[in-house]
Amino acid sequence: MPNIARLLAPDADLCDCLRAGFVRDTRHESSQDPATEINRFPAMPWCGLTVMLQGQVILLDAQDQPIAQPLPSVFFSGPQDRPFANRNLGPVHAFCLGFRPHALGLLAGIQLERLLNQHLPLQALLEYSSKRLDWQGLAASIRSADNDAERWRLAQAWLRPQWQAVTPQHKGLLAALTGQLRHLSVKACAQMLGYNDRTLTRRTQAFTGLAPRKLKCWMQAEQALLEVMDSRDSLAQIAAKHGFADQAHLCRQARKLTSQSPGALRRETQQSQDPSLWPLRLRD
After folding, report:
1. Which site from 67, 183, 194, 247 is most exposed, i.e. has the minimal number of CB atoms within 10 Å?
2. Pairwise CA distance, residues 141 & 151, whole Å
3. Interior CA angle at 265 toward 261 and 268, to 5°?
4. CATH architecture designation of domain 213-281
5. Is the pLDDT at 137 greater than 70, yes or no?
6. Alpha carbon distance 201, 179 (integer Å)
7. 3-state SS assignment for residue 87
8. In DSSP terms, which residues pair with 135 in a beta bridge?
9. Is 209 helix (H, G, I), strand (E, B) or coil?
């Protein structure tokens, strides 16, 4: 299978802001297999800003039928708490900024819980935002750049001062959402920040679109499923290592987030059987 999808790693000072850059380029794909036109994504708590440099995509329902009109050439994706899919309408070249769960809420002043499972035109991001950042200018710079490496450089240069401006006042909450919540209980995180449980839940939902317990479960499952796909350890060992009650608990969470069992994810990663599942094979 050609290398038509790849990740771009963020600079060190933006790692708490960006999960990665994503490039999908099928312009030179020779296969006529309809499966290569479909893109199946797992549930993802991070948000995305996608610029379609060429081609269009259309959202699909659970039966792989189109939901509505094709998405616009620049669109924003809110946090997704269930798997979703879209279809390429011909060859595509797409460039996406994948933001950490909390980052876009802080940058743009958006209540992300209102945008859960949404895919919206960039104009909607401007309307929901309480901060007047030039997202349209960023999209125009990405579109006019000569290549994907330059697009990534320009995007990070634009984001850097914006991110540096918002992080000092939220340092404690950022530390909790980027690391401590994965290892501590929600109650322990709240106490460490001087919050009660309700305050931590309210602030986490506002910035990430997800309640802290759901975000914690997702982070726990992400690490476990990456290990499922990349190691040969037994599912029971991986479940115990990452805090699941048992192997069955891990299996339920995997199906909820990816529509696949852990065993199927492992086989898919190792054998690359389904072209539509390319997002599951991407690695940092």
Report:
1. 194
2. 7
3. 135
4. Orthogonal Bundle (1.10)
5. yes
6. 16
7. strand
8. none
9. coil
The torsion region of residue 88 among left (phi > 0), alpha (psi -120 to 50) and beta comes to beta
- CA dist 117 and 47 (Å) reads 10
Taking the model in full, what pTM does it have? Answer: 0.88
CB-CB contact of 96 with 51 (8 Å): yes
Element (H, E) at 41: strand 38-41
Q: Decide if 5-166 and 213-281 have a common fold.
A: no
CATH superfamily label, 5-166: Jelly Rolls (2.60.120.10)
**Contact (Cβ atoms closer than 8 angstroms) between residue 100 and residue 18:** yes
Backbone angles phi, psi at 7, to 5 degrees: -100, 150
Confidence of residue 23 (pLDDT cuts 50, 70, 90): very high
**Burial track 153-166 (b if 16+ CB lie within 10 A, e otherwise):** eebbebbeebbeeb
pLDDT tens for each residue of 84-125: 999 999 999 999 999 988 888 889 888 888 888 999 999 888
Confidence at 1, pLDDT banded by 50, 70, 90: very low
For residue 152, the SS3 value is helix
Scanning the chain, the segments in alpha helix (DSSP H) are 103-108, 122-128, 135-144, 148-166, 171-175, 181-183, 186-193, 197-208, 212-230, 235-241, 247-258, 262-271, 278-281
* Alpha-carbon gap, residue 134 to 94, rounded angstroms: 20
The answer to whether 41 and 83 have CB atoms below 8 angstroms apart is yes
The 3-state DSSP class for residue 66 equals: strand
CA distances from 257 to 143, 234, 260 (A): 32, 20, 8
Do 14 and 59 contact (CB within 8 A), yes or no? no
Round the CA-based radius of gyration of the chain to a whole number and report it.
19
